[in-house]
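FAQ: What does a multi-protein file look like?

Like this. Sequence, then tokens, then the next protein.
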Amino acid sequence: MTDNIDIFWSFRSPYSYLVTPDLIRLREDYRVSVTLRPVLPIALRAKATVFDAKDKKRPQYIVMDSYRRAKFLGLPMAWPKPDPVIQDRETFEVSAEQPYIWRLSKLGIEAERRGKGIDFAYHVALLLWGGTSDWNEGDHLARAVAKAGLDLAELEAALEQYDGEAEIAKNHELLEQAGHWGVPTMVFDGEPFFGQDRIDTLRWRLDEAGLRRKSAE
């Protein structure tokens, strides 16, 4: 049997975007499966824990640090246009209607059901965060999905057959059960590893478990 790593991941999280190349490498370097578990961003799940209109230090730091981290990693970085979450940048109030993030998250659910969740996350996150304006228009999204070996129309048709929102809610519960709340959180053998910069710690744990492939040694 192959060991599994659950990845709790958000399309609105810059750090989730930044970890995707490392997640691809995990599959290449270790005898593990990597399961994408899309969750809604914390701006929708638990807004009060992060955003305070009177204190903008935390969101300002996240933006600054994520751009810095992207430069360190050699990855392109630009805040998505449009933002996957419709939110007032001054008050941090979020709209009741959130078509972008729900669509992306549900598509991620279906991509994982087809065994290509991480591939989907990698290519779609690069589309969103790599500098493509109006990613939601034209064939931008369809082309990114095709790079993951999937068909956008087929994914969207499949979503009509079950409750994608319930699947996302289940992922929220699993993240809580794993002992964390943020993204990206990688969970291996019941142990959570939070943050893009914890991927090396996770690799160390996988080495301890003897899961490194001989080809990666």
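And here is the next protein:
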Amino acid sequence: MNVIQDYRRSLERSRQALAREDWPAVFTLCGREWDLLPGVFAPVYSPTTEFSMRLMGLADPAAAPRTGSFLEIGCGSGVIAVASALGGCDRVVAVDISEAAVRNTALNAERHGVRDRVRSLRGDLFAGLAPEERFDTVFWHSNYVLAPAEYQYRTMLERGYVDPGYATHRRFLTEAPGRLAPGGSVLLHFSGRGDLDGLLRIAEECGRALTVLRSAVFREGEHEVEHMLIEVTAVS
């Protein structure tokens, strides 16, 4: 197994993060300060949230304004959801299976004055949404490292690092297009640390097409890793 794709390495990173004694209550990312609660995926210890911000065009506060509604799946500390509201989105919904992440996102929406536009809620993918809710953009910074299908999570934080059997990716590809408003787009942040061939096979089985809109190579520790912003569309 390629070392950068080894799920055991990713799980160890999650365990090391939880064990840290220097966990900050506030961190700085892309020129802004953010609250961080214990046990929430920590951008200060994993650089991939910043990579998402760059791929999505959210890293520069002076960038062209965004519009419309935005749904983030797996919001973590809420950086991307809040940055989308700050960038101009008028309705943002941030979903996470972790109750701590939901609270953390609300804290950051309050910190940056967009609590009226950002709603955070607990749910497993789309389960927490009202059936009729639709969005101009659906985004997920996925837990792209593939773990064995039989792996059982030991902590909530591990869910942000690996996906056993890509079961969550399969559900996302199946359900996400049904959450779009007319003309909307489903966007997925994926990485060379994941199994792209496996994802493509699942997409084909689900009747979905994947198009890389943007990619960049970023340094993660001792490795340079490609990260991709992928658009998911239904095959007619």
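Q: Is there any per-entry metadata?
A: Some entries carry free-text notes. For the entry above: Residues 3-234 form a domain with the Rossmann fold fold (CATH 3.40.50.150).
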